Amino acid sequence: MNGFIEWLEGLNEKDTKVRAVLRRSLAFDPGAFVPAYPYIEPFLKGEDRPWQREMLYLAAGIWAAHWREGRNGAPLPIGRACAAHQVASGSTNTERRFITLLDSDPDQLPNRLRQMVALLKEQPIDFNDLLKGLLYWNEDQKRTQNTWARDFYRTLNNETATEYQNKKEISE
């Protein structure tokens, strides 16, 4: 699905109502909000893969809800963005929500992902990476969930180690 987010960005540059329609689509099951069809279906080019179609609609809606003009910082994979939020907020609630997201079955995924991304409103998210992960969500090996978890805990551990080093240097 290379180029999908760029596709949405291009549509958005021509008409900002694209984001409003895609945000509204989040109130429905992915792919069930007819006004969003003109923005997603042309990208699908007639392919008939239901999971791929649903994930494109979900990613588009979440992208539209998360979009901010002039957002600063490099986009982060979702696991790193969650860890950055936890460090910035000091709340361990982020980790609990993140684990719940990773444990989502296909029916729970849209709602839990929307909630998580809403929590990350200040974090720049790599939506190309997010979509790639969503497309492989149902793999038996749980490659997406494992990658996101590794990103989260490695980032969290790096941040914690850095904080520890800084405190140690200050106290010496």
Automatic annotation (TrEMBL):
Pfam families: CRISPR_Cse2 (PF09485). InterPro entries: CRISPR-assoc_prot_Cse2, Cse2_sf. This is CRISPR-associated protein, Cse2 family. It comes from Candidatus Gallionella acididurans.
